[in-house]
Amino acid sequence: MLNHTSGIQDHAFLYHEHKRVAIDGNVYGEYLFESDKLPHSVFMPTNEDVIKILQEFLQSRFKPGAKWERSNSGYVLLVQLIENITGMHFRDYSKKNIFLPLAMKQPGVYDESRPKPENKVSSYVAKNGEFADGDYSPLNLIYRDGGIYFTMNDLVKWQKAWFSPSLLSEASLNTIRTPGLLIDGSLPKNVVKGKAYGMGVLMRLTGYLYTSTVEAG
Predict the structure, then answer these.
(1) Domain extents in the chain
(2) 11-167 maps to which CATH number?
(3) How does pLDDT run across 125-149, given as a tens digit for each residue?
(4) Helix 47-56 and helix 73-86: axis angle, to 10°?
(5) At residue 32, does pLDDT exceed 50?
C-alpha cells in the first residue's frame, strides 16, 4: 500500500465516478481546510465513509504487485490499522509518537472534529480571471496522505526527520527509501520518468543511485 502497487481502488476516484461528491476539475485537486464560505450541509466523507465505499466496490484495479498506480486509499487503510491496533485515534497517536518526539509546536490532524488552527493561512486559486477560495474540498475530512497541518518551523522539523534517525531508525529509513519492485522484480515503468518510488518517497533515478524526496502530501 505504501508503494502504491496494491491495486486497491482510490476512494477519490470512486466518489467522483459514482457522483457521491462534487469535485471540480482534477480529482486530486484537494485542499486541506474546509471553507467557511460554503454550507456545511454538503456531504463530506470521513475515513469511516472511505472504508464503506471500498467495501462497496471491492474489485481491485490489478493483481497486487503487478503495476504501480497511486491510490490514497492505502493510506486510509493503514491509518485504520494503526487505530485498531493501538485503540487510539490517529490525531492522538500522531501527537504522542510523532509530533511530541519531534518537538513540534502547533501540528495537528484535520479530521471529522473540524479543528480550527490559530493563524491559519488561507489559499486561493485563479478561476475565471479572479482569485477564488482554494481551501475547500468535499474530501477535506479524510486524513490519509494529507490532512495534517504544520507551522513552517514544524514542517522543517518534519522534513529533517526523514533524513536522520531522529524519529525512525536508520534501518527503517533505508527500508522506506528502497525503491518498491513489482512481483517480477522490476521497477515500475509508469512512475514519473527518471524516478522510482519507495514507501511514500519519490526518488530520482540516476544509474543505480536514488536520491530520496519526501512527498509534500
Answers:
(1) 11-167
(2) 3.40.710.10
(3) 787 788 877 777 788 889 887 888 8
(4) 120
(5) no
